[in-house]
Amino acid sequence: MDAHVPVLRDRVVELLRPALEAPGAVLVDATLGRAGHARAILSLLPGLSLIGIDTDATAIAESRDLLIAFAGRITLVQAVYDELPQILASLGVPAVQGVLFDLGVSSPQLDNPERGFSYAQDAPLDMRMNQAGSLTAADVLNTYPADRLARVLRDYGEERFARRIADAVVRERQRSPLASTQRLTEIVRESIPAPARRTGGNPAKRTFQALRIEVNGELDALHRALPAALDAIAVGGRIVALAYHSLEDRAVKRALAAGAADTTPPGLPVPLESSRPRFRLLTRGAERATEQEVAANPRAAPVRLRAAERVRPAA
Ligand SMILES: C[S@@+](CC[C@H](N)C(=O)[O-])C[C@H]1O[C@@H](n2cnc3c(N)ncnc32)[C@H](O)[C@@H]1O
């Protein structure tokens, strides 16, 4: 297996497949990327149609080529995934049988130094998933007041030394604007105490994660998209979500738990029929990649997979 085999591919297919076997089934891949998961599922199920969404125009263009064999049953849309309700309405699709979220950054985005997502390579501080977006990581670093910058690093990077890093960024930009990922990596390294530099991998990792989330409004979009996706799933349909850091996973866990909760008001002697759970969880806690998969594809190391099946219509 190499980095081009999508994370937990076989498990994703196994979980979605029972919901997608009927002719006419529709799967939304909300994070199409290079269509690795999508291709695996489309090639197994000849009656399946796919709606593929990605905010990155390059991902959509390349996936169109990669999925050429399935051209008659795919619709690809460049959009943020929280636009799902409008996309389905415009396509005249009232409900779908599956939704997949494989969250975060794709390997091609990380590996292309020009995109500025990787602290491992020097590049301009960009980090936009949608290259037409107006906010870059350089804008965040060079314009946010120190307090706001520290909050971004703390909230989205869970960075303990957020304030020190933010202050160092502000000092640096008073001399000259920050422009490169390498300089940012150095500033982070210099800002944190020496013992902390020796643990937990590259100390810039959390800062890069935080900036990426801010630049792309990732968590806000996810918090809107998950309930919208659950609402769009038909009875018997399934959702599978792969998260790569704790903030994403928390959002997924909460959304699925809310879907699987009985909403009978407290104090009533018996559960109300209309308040019974709409979903049942298909995973116990979060599933992780095996050691073999992580050895072959280190990007699978942090993954947490959760899934649920719709068991009831809306009340
Ligand atoms: C981990 S990759 C998906 C890889 C894909 N499953 C595959 O097999 O190739 C995540 C993709 O989601 C896209 N993405 C991230 N946030 C998004 C959002 N809010 N709306 C739409 N697409 C998003 C990224 O541009 C990226 O291409």
In short:
The chain has 315 residues and is of the alpha/beta class. It contains 14 helices and 7 strands.
Furnish the topology, listing elements before pairings.
Elements (H helix, E strand, L loop, with lengths): L8 H12 L5 E4 L6 H9 L4 E6 L2 H10 L7 E5 L5 H8 L4 E7 L4 H5 L25 H7 L2 H12 L4 H14 L5 H11 L2 H4 L7 H12 L1 H15 E11 L2 H14 L19 E3 L9 H6 L7 E7 L5
This protein binds S-adenosylmethionine.
Describe this structure in words.
This protein has 315 residues and is of the alpha/beta class. It is 44% helix and 14% strand. It contains 14 helices and seven strands. It has helices at residues 9-20, 36-44, 57-66, 84-91, 107-111, 137-143, 146-157, 162-175, 181-191, 194-197, 205-216, 218-232, 246-259, 291-296, and strands spanning 26-29, 49-54, 74-78, 96-102, 233-243, 279-281, 304-310. The protein has a seven-stranded mixed β-sheet, with helices on both faces. Strand 2 (49-54), helix 3 and strand 3 form a beta-alpha-beta unit. Helix 7 crosses helix 8 (162-175), helix 7 (146-157) packs across helix 11 (205-216) and helix 12 (218-232) packs parallel to helix 13. The radius of gyration is 21 Å and the shape is globular. The termini are far apart. The mean pLDDT is 95. It binds S-adenosylmethionine. S-adenosylmethionine binds at residues 6, 31, 33-37, 53-56, 59, 80-81, 102, 104, 106, 129, 218, 221.
List keywords for this structure.
315 residues; alpha/beta; 7-stranded mixed β-sheet; 44% helix
